[in-house]
Amino acid sequence: MAKVAPFRVQPRPPLCRDRVMLKFCGRNTSIHATMEGGGDDGFSIERYMASKAATVNEELNRSLPLQHPECLHESMRYSLLAGGKRVRPVLAIAACELVGGDEAAAAPLACAVEMVHAMSLIHDDLPCMDDDDLRRGRPTNHVAFGVSTALLAGDALLALSFEHLARGCAEHGVPADRALRAVAELANAVGTGGLVAGQVVDMASEGVDVSLGTLEYIHMHKTARLLEAAAVCGAIVGGGGQGEIEGMRRYARLVGLLFQVVDDVLDVTRTSEQLGKTAGKDLATGKATYPKLMGIDGARAYAADLLVGAEAELQRFDPTRTEPLRHLARFIAYRQH
């Protein structure tokens, strides 16, 4: 795998003024002890996610028909329609609904975000990056279709994401200023303000002792930034005010980092068969992880604090509309794969 020369990163300041991002706030709570099994208010996040995922999956299938050149479109469909939890699209729709928008208006955005995510997985798995052979329980895209086709499929998915977002917003009557703002937000989440920057620093940090600040930089960009963009764009498309949009940004940053902390813990506590991807790969390649820097118990306690912070951000919204996002944060916290 190609190596990038290490360099010093100036990390972002912690997201919360009380430094919840880098401290445990004096609590010894375990994320498993904080809440066993979720809420008791009758809301089912599983049903909600299944419903939204079904909407997204139908639109994704329609948006990418099998056509010439077939090898390219087969490769794109292979990764895009491979299933998964669809957390990012669900987050986009839930954020849109939170500020008074509807699912139909958010669906093109939800699909665009998932196209970006699929692209990132294809590229992340390439031999020049993480060189993984397994993704979602199947051979990775480059193993199934070859490196060149996989690379181009990722590029094509990225282009399609912005086309689909722009056309979909126009078709559903989303005002042009909102659509343009959503496009700019999503684009920033892909490039030097997000995925690409995080990947570069991640590669540079392999086999190097890094600080919590550098680790936060990596995962705020590589993982959390796209979840943040999904929520922010959802609020934008739904017509949210600036305060609502920024509230969604803070919530999603915490949820995005929570997603990565849990992912790091699962990487060292679950098997490849349970995860559907190669377990223990970060440890084998010398990458920094939260369990490596904090220990497993410390990482779990950190995840508990991130969950508390995310739920606190929802308190500024109408409580009758926050259930999906509150339960989505808990779903991410307690997931087992």
TrEMBL record:
Cofactor: Mg(2+)
GO MF terms held by the record: metal ion binding; prenyltransferase activity
Recorded family membership: Belongs to the FPP/GGPP synthase family.
Protein name: Geranylgeranyl diphosphate synthase
A GO term from the CC aspect: cytoplasm
GO biological process, one term: isoprenoid biosynthetic process
Pathway assigned to this chain's UniProt record: Isoprenoid biosynthesis
CDD domains: Trans_IPPS_HT (cd00685)
Pfam family, any one: polyprenyl_synt
Keyword line: Isoprene biosynthesis, Magnesium, Metal-binding, Transferase
Biological source species: Lolium multiflorum (Italian ryegrass)
